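Render this sequence as a predicted structure.
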Amino acid sequence: VEEILIKKLQEKFPTHKFIGEESSAAGVKTIFENDPTWIIDPIDGTTNFVHGFPFVAISIALAINKQVVIGVIYNPILDLLYSAVHGKGAFRNGRPIKSSGQTGK
């Protein structure tokens, strides 16, 4: 999954860098600098996936100047797509969502 995502993103953004869970585990080193960098976790919740629990996701983020500006989380089992763009809001399957406003107090 990670290879496919990186390949597709490289086609559209050839100058961007990539940090992936699988490639990092394989020893590929990427220095996290100010360059546009995609951060990819191809299967978040591997244990759940292996046991057939539907709580898994593909997580992707774009950081520019070390600040995350785009985040996307997709649960392929439940077909739920969450996305957020800095300054534009957050969405579930394309529909706006908002936080409850509660704090940790």
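Summary. The first helix runs from residue 2 to 12. The mean pLDDT is 89.
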